[in-house]
């Protein structure tokens, strides 16, 4: 073989090994929260965030807040109840509930109270303050704010498959119900439709 | 120079084949060790042995399937859930075709590709994940698994949602139990119907509990013609109607009996009829590992209910293998022809190298005997209505003569309308972990002191704990 060709061949070999080793190494890229990252086509953090933002925007723009303020003279107090995952995927409902809590709280339109398990933990902490904490800094029991409304919901899916293409339709339903008389004051719905095309070949 | 390079490449290829061969042998021995540890009732030790099976490479799905099962048997339900989810991700990636692996299966050996579980194992992955969630009391997540079973089957058969080679009867039946427990009664009826059709397609007996469920739900939905058809077909004249406000609860126990059949190689090495070369035919064959369990019964408040055979995993594996054999045989022939042609060409350059290549290629040409071996041989299911509150239960494993070979006792505390699904693994005797879960894991938050009292009475008297429990009267 010509010496020049041999030299070029060596460099190609070195370059190929380098590229190969780089491909094997773990690579982490930090991306902005708003950049969608759809890897598998399943429900992800972007879906959770977008749905919670849009639904809470819709919720606080409706007339029930004004009606409540007109009737009571104060901001409504909301608690998050049961949000059930009825979809065909294991969706972390807790992160979705956290997204909803954040949007509700940041809206500034409602007072928001801790729910379920968190409340028990706070009460336990308050009990613990008795006898252990200086009196002037102690939080007293019996001063919690009761919720006026409970927010409940479901995440549902409908899927359709044809060959290696799948359509996943997510429907999130949230409802705000008055604790006083069980009347629904707001019902919201948000749909997401995803078309997932699975590759025929793998390496 | 060109010739010497070619020779070097071929020597390397031969050495590579020998390396693969060594790897296959050690992997087989490792799986045998896992089998043997499990057979002796030591899932924790089997887990340690399994660690030798690499988490990477072509056995990744097999590793995570077995790991999930062994963790479950060891009583680590959370660990088992995580392992099965990992298995699902890997299997999802493997649904696409690998050209190189397909070529290798035709040219080198049947087991040279990545292990992709057959449909019946894939369905059982969802079944065991659902059972894990049910055992943890997480009905919503168990429901997700039931939906994934349906979705998976609709991907295979969009029109009818059937598994072409069976194995879908019990997954559908369990889905019905889950939907019923979650209060999705129309979905429950659909799942029960599909289970019934699947049992019929598999020529397997339809469990009595499933027959009653079909009658109850067709009656509840007002489908009187369909209900009457089932009544006639099953010869049933009395059943308990669906009561949306029932004050009783439901206890379901799934008994996992024995070890699934394993695949072994049946092969023969033949000299070429006219040349100085070797040919090899190696095919997988199923080796059943039947259990000594003949039947089982659940005793609650003095009332005995026989556990029913719900799934014969050996039969599913048998149908699957029978359907694969024509394709495997065609590839065996193709590999022998390819090896023969390559050896003949090599002989023109170097006879020794040709001989080495032929021998190595022949030895490497193994049948694919990989399967999810930690599955049980059979599954039994028993479902009974129990009073709300603490209830003692006892599961008896019976011998052919009707004697009690082994016993598992537990106490469960249920709210009105609640369904609890428990599992027990039997490998010649109940696993210690199943005993521990029965006595402690199944008790929920309600009436803990009452449960302790019941257990103490059981231990003191050595009798079944009917004491203090209301009789269902049925």
Describe what this molecule looks like in 3D.
The complex is a heterodimer of chains A (203) and B (474). Chain A is α/β, with parallel strands linked by helices. Chain A has a domain at 38-116 and 145-197: Rossmann fold. Chain A has helices at 3-24, 45-61, 64-72, 93-107, 116-129, and strands at residues 77-85, 111-112, 149-162, 165-178, 184-197, 201-202. In chain A, α2 runs parallel beside α4. The longest helix of chain A is centred in the N-terminal third of the chain and has 22 residues, at 3-24. The relative contact order of chain A is 0.14. With 474 residues, chain B is of the alpha+beta class. Helix content of chain B is 53%, strand content 18%. Chain B has helices at residues 2-39, 43-50, 60-73, 77-93, 99-107, 119-135, 139-156, 169-182, 185-201, 208-220, 224-234, 313-347, 351-364, 432-441, 448-461; strands at residues 97-98, 248-257, 262-271, 278-287, 295-300, 303-306, 308-312, 378-387, 389-398, 404-414, 419-426. In chain B, a hairpin with a 6-residue loop joins β3 (262-271) and β4 (278-287). In chain B, α3 (60-73) packs antiparallel against α4, α6 packs antiparallel against α7 (139-156) and α8 runs antiparallel to α9 (185-201). The longest helix of chain B is centred in the N-terminal third of the chain and has 38 residues, at 2-39. Chain B starts with a helix and ends in a 13-residue tail after the last helix. Classes of the chains: A alpha/beta (203), B alpha+beta (474). The A-B interface holds A 1, 40, 84-90, 157, 159, 161-162, 166, 198-203 and B 1, 85, 92-100, 140-141, 143-144, 147-148, 150-151, 154-155, 158.
């Amino acid at each position: 073989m010509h010496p020049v060709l041999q030299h070029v061949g060596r460099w190609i070999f070195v370059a190929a090994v380098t590229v190969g080793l780089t491909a094997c190494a773990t690579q982490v890229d930090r991306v902005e929260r708003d950049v969608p990252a759809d890897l598998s086509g399943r429900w992800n953090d972007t879906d959770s965030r977008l749905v919670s933002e849009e639904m809470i925007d819709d919720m606080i723009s409706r007339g029930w807040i004004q009606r409540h303020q007109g009737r009571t003279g104060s901001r409504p107090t909301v608690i998050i109840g049961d949000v059930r995952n009825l979809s065909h995927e294991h969706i972390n409902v807790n992160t979705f509930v956290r997204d909803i809590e954040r949007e509700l709280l940041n809206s500034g339109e409602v007072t928001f109270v801790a729910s379920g398990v968190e409340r028990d933990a706070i009460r336990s902490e308050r009990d613990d303050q008795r006898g252990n904490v200086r009196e002037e800094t102690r939080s007293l029991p019996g001063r919690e704010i009761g919720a006026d409304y409970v927010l409940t919901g479901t995440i549902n899916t409908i899927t359709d498959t044809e060959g290696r293409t799948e359509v996943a339709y997510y429907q999130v339903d949230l409802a705000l119900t008055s604790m006083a008389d069980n009347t629904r004051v707001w019902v919201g719905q948000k749909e997401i439709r995803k078309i997932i095309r699975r590759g025929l070949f793998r390496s | 120079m060109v010739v010497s390079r070619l020779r070097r490449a071929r020597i390397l290829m031969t050495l590579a084949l020998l390396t693969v061969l060594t790897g296959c042998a050690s992997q087989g021995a490792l799986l045998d060790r896992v089998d043997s540890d499990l057979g002796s009732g030591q899932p924790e030790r089997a887990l340690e042995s399994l660690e030798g099976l690499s988490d990477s490479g072509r056995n990744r799905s097999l590793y995570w399937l077995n790991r999930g099962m062994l963790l479950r048997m060891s009583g680590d339900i959370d660990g088992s859930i995580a392992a099965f989810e990992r298995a699902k991700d890997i299997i999802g990636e493997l649904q696409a075709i690998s050209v190189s692996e397909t070529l290798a299966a035709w040219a080198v050996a049947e087991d040279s590709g990545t292990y992709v579980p057959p449909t019946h194992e894939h369905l059982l992955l969802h079944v065991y994940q659902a059972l894990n969630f049910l055992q943890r009391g997480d009905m919503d997540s168990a429901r997700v698994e039931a939906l994934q079973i349906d979705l998976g089957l609709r991907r295979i058969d969009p029109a009818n949602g059937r598994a072409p080679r069976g194995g879908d009867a019990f997954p559908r039946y369990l889905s019905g139990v889950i939907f019923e427990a979650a209060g999705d009664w129309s979905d429950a009826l659909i799942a029960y119907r599909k289970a019934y059709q699947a049992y019929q397609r598999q020529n397997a007996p339809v469990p009595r509990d499933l027959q009653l469920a079909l009658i109850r739900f067709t009656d509840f939905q007002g489908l009187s013609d369909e209900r009457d058809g089932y009544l006639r077909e099953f010869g049933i004249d009395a059943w308990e109607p669906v009561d949306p406000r029932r004050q009783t609860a439901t206890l379901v126990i799934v008994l996992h009996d024995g070890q699934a059949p394993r695949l072994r190689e049946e092969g023969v090495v033949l000299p070429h009829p006219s040349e100085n070369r070797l040919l090899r035919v190696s095919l997988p064959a199923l080796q059943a590992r039947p259990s000594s369990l003949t039947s089982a019964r659940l005793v609650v408040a003095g009332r005995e209910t026989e556990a029913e055979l719900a799934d014969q995993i050996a039969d599913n594996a048998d149908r699957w293998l029978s359907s694969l054999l024509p394709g495997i045989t065609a590839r065996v022939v193709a590999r022998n022809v390819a090896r023969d042609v390559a050896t003949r060409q090599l002989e023109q350059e170097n006879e020794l190298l040709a001989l080495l290549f032929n021998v190595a290629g022949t030895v490497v040409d193994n049948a694919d005997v990989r399967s999810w071996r930690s599955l049980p041989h059979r599954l039994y299911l028993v479902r009974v209505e129990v009073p709300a509150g603490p209830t003692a239960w006892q599961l008896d494993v019976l011998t052919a003569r009707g004697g009690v070979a082994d016993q598992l006792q537990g106490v469960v505390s249920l709210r009105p309308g609640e369904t609890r699904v428990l599992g027990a693994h039997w490998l010649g005797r109940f696993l210690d972990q199943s005993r521990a879960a029965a006595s402690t894991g199944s008790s929920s938050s309600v009436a803990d002191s009452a449960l302790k009292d019941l257990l103490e009475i059981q231990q003191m008297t050595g009798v079944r704990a009917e004491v203090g429990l209301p009789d269902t009267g049925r």
